[in-house]
């Protein structure tokens, strides 16, 4: 069941909705970055190797051009044919070789063997030239007699058979540029020239093409011998990579291939005297290092984002489902009969609105239950009082009727009118089945009451009923106006000379609210007492209404009026009491007619159910 809960599904959905796109984005970014870096690296390294090829070719051409200067010296060719005892010829040969040595940077030594004179000469920058007679050239040069120009692969430096000198470096690696000097235009070889070139010059050119710590660069001749490498252990060795050998010996002059976990970029140097291949080997770990770093950064960000997402998912899911659980708990308690559950949820979001509406709904239900209970209690109380008051009402009515008849027989119609008014007032008060009456009925009752009071006070009392026609048929609770007017005669009327005045007026507002205003010119209410009354009428007070306004000796007071108005309408009932200037009191009532209409309909249904009468039947009571 846990997995079927909203919280579990929400967490799973949000994790999938965020994790899958995030991982997919990282993967696609890595692949795209990897391919982009590969293309950029390939383009950059092609340009670097091409530039290195141009520089290396120019360097070899400079050695070749230096060796060709021997042909421009006519004396040099003649000196090669002279006997070794001609010291002038020997000195001129040495000078020509020394010029070549000084022309090109990086030349370690120059060896020359004249085939006709049999003289071998060795020139180095550090020592004087060495000379000796030999019938054959040094063995390392013999294989290059058939070539006009050729380059011997990288090998250890040697002194071409001469005794070693203190400045000789037998461990130094060099490559040798060989040239056979012929008697042009004849092809007869006059001498063999060997120029040893230090790899330092090649290193100066190639070290700009790669990173020694992370990459590898090779210069390989057509036979697969390593001419130059960033690793000294590979110099002069044969490469064993078959795919690399195939590329070297193939017809493709440039390109790249991947093997052994690395990308290999190559370009061939094609010159008349050699065919070298420059190869740059970039391990994948180096090539894709930036891609890995970017992916690691993205992964770190993704982990942080995922952590935030997980936390946010849990937080949001709890924030969403916790109110549901809390509301379910409240519902279970309400279902068990606890209607007074304290529903608390202090949030301003949608859940707060939901709890507020639920709390308002429960308050409405409780108020309806309480209202029905109070109405039932009030009806029972009224019935009890009516039973106590109606001790043989027929006897009382018959007695009043007999007195009225006697008044007519004695020619006193005023007494008969007063008795009739009193009988109607008593009959109106004792009609217990009428809970709601019209304003017209209530006004007639008040008029009868005021007529009796006028009989008591005579010209000292004046009253006015100013009721709008559209308000006369509006329903309202019974016995609302007379208790409020009665307070005036009990507490407010000036009995010492000022003429009393009572005014009742009504009108209907546009929003369907009946407004009734009762004014008198009696004594004003003390300010402190008025403030207390206003607070209690507004529902903010904690005590009972003042005794003279609450009703005493069983009489109906202001509190009873307000309570019954509140019982008959679910909306707020407006009731205000205020002093007039210079004297007098005004009581204002506001009654929602829509609520009265609903209550009137409900009362009719209740009466029909109680009496068994149909909607078309009318029950009257004769007294």
Explain what the structure shows.
With 623 residues, this protein is of the alpha+beta class. 50% of the residues lie in helices and 20% in strands. The chain has 17 helices and 18 strands. The chain has helices spanning 6-72, 74-80, 87-103, 139-142, 199-206, 242-249, 284-287, 289-335, 350-389, 393-409, 413-429, 439-457, 481-492, 527-537, 547-550, 558-567, 593-611, and strands at 107-114, 119-123, 130-133, 149-156, 173-182, 189-198, 216-220, 226-229, 254-259, 262-270, 275-283, 436-438, 461-467, 475-477, 500-508, 513-520, 574-579, 585-592. The protein has a 6-stranded antiparallel β-sheet. It has a 5-stranded antiparallel β-sheet with strand order 8-7-11-10-9. A 5-stranded mixed β-sheet has the order 13-15-16-18-17. β1 and β2 form a beta hairpin. α11 crosses α12. It is rod-shaped. The model is unreliable at 540-556 and 609-623 (pLDDT under 50).
Helix content: 40-55%
Strand content: 15-25%
Mean pLDDT rating: 79
Strand order of the largest sheet: 3-2-1-6-5-4
How many strand units? 18
User: Count of helices?
Assistant: 17
Give the end-to-end Cα distance, rounded to a whole number of Å. Answer: 72 Å
Major sheet size, sense and barrel closure: 6 strands, antiparallel
Unreliable stretches covering 5 or more consecutive residues: 540-556, 609-623
Taken from the alpha-carbon principal axes, the silhouette is: rod-shaped
- From the helix content, strand content and strand pairing, which structural class follows? alpha+beta
As an assembly, this protein is single chain
Protein name: Two-component system sensor histidine kinase YesM
Keywords: ATP-binding, Cell membrane, Kinase, Membrane, Nucleotide-binding, Phosphoprotein, Transferase, Transmembrane, Transmembrane helix, Two-component regulatory system
EC number: 2.7.13.3
Transmembrane segments: 297-318
């Amino acid at each position: 069941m846990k997995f079927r809960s909203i919280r579990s599904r929400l967490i799973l959905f949000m994790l999938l909705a965020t994790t899958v796109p995030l991982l997919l984005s990282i993967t696609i970014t890595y692949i795209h970055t990897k391919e982009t870096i590969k293309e950029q690296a390939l383009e950059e390294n092609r340009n670097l190797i091409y530039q290195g090829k141009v520089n290396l070719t120019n360097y070899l051409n400079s050695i070749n051009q230096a060796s060709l200067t021997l042909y421009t010296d006519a004396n040099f060719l003649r000196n090669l044919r002279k006997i070794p005892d001609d010291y002038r010829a020997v000195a001129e040969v040495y000078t020509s070789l020394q010029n070549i040595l000084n022309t090109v940077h990086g030349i370690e030594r120059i060896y020359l063997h004249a085939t006709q004179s049999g003289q071998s000469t060795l020139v180095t920058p550090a020592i004087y030239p060495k000379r000796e007679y030999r019938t054959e050239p040094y063995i390392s040069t013999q294989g290059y007699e058939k070539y006009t120009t050729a380059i011997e692969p990288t090998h250890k430096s040697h002194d071409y058979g001469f005794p070693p000198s203190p400045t000789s470096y037998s461990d130094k690696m060099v490559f040798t540029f060989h040239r056979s000097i012929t008697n042009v235009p004849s092809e007869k070889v006059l001498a063999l020239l060997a120029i040893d070139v230090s790899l330092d010059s090649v290193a100066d050119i190639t070290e700009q093409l790669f990173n020694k710590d992370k990459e590898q660069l090779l210069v390989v001749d057509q036979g697969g011998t390593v001419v130059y490498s960033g690793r000294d252990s590979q110099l002069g060795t044969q490469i064993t990579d078959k795919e690399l050998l195939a590329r070297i010996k193939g017809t493709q002059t440039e390109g790249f291939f991947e093997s052994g976990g690395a990308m290999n970029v190559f370009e061939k140097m094609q010159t008349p005297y050699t065919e070298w291949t420059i190869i740059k080997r970039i391990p994948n770990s180096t090539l894709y290092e930036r891609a890995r770093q970017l992916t690691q950064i993205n992964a770190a960000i993704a982990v942080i984002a995922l952590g935030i997402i997980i936390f946010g998912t849990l937080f949001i899911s709890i924030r969403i489902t916790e109110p549901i659980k809390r509301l379910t708990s409240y519902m279970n308690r309400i279902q068990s009969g606890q209607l007074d559950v304290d529903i608390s949820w202090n949030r301003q979001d949608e859940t707060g609105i939901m709890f507020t509406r639920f709390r308002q709904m429960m308050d409405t239900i409780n108020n309806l239950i309480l209202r029905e209970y109070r109405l039932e209690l009030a009806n029972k109380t009224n019935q009890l009082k009516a039973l106590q008051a109606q001790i043989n009402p027929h006897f009382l009515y018959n007695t009043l009727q007999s007195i009225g008849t006697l008044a007519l027989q004695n020619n006193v119609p005023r007494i008969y009118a007063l008795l009739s008014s009193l009988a109607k007032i008593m009959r109106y008060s004792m009609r217990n089945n009428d809970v709601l009456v019209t304003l017209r009925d209530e006004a007639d009752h008040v008029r009868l009451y005021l007529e009796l009071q006028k009989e008591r006070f005579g010209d000292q009392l004046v009253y006015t009923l100013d009721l709008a026609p559209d308000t006369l048929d509006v329903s309202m609770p019974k016995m609302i106006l007379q208790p409020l007017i009665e307070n005036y005669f009990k507490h407010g009327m000036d009995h010492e000379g000022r003429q009393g005045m009572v005014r009742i007026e009504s009108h209907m507002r546009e929003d369907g609210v009946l407004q009734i205003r009762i004014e008198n010119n009696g004594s004003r209410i003390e300010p402190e007492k008025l403030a207390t009354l206003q607070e209690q009428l507004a529902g903010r007070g904690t005590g009972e209404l003042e005794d003279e306004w609450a009703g005493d000796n069983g009489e109906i007071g202001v509190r009873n009026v307000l309570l019954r108005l509140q019982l008959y309408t679910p909306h707020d009932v407006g009731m205000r009491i205020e002093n007039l200037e210079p004297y007098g009191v005004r009581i204002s009532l506001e009654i929602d007619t829509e609520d009265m209409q609903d209550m009137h309909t409900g009362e009719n249904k209740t009466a029909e159910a109680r009496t068994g009468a149909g909607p078309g039947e009318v029950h009257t009571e004769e007294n």
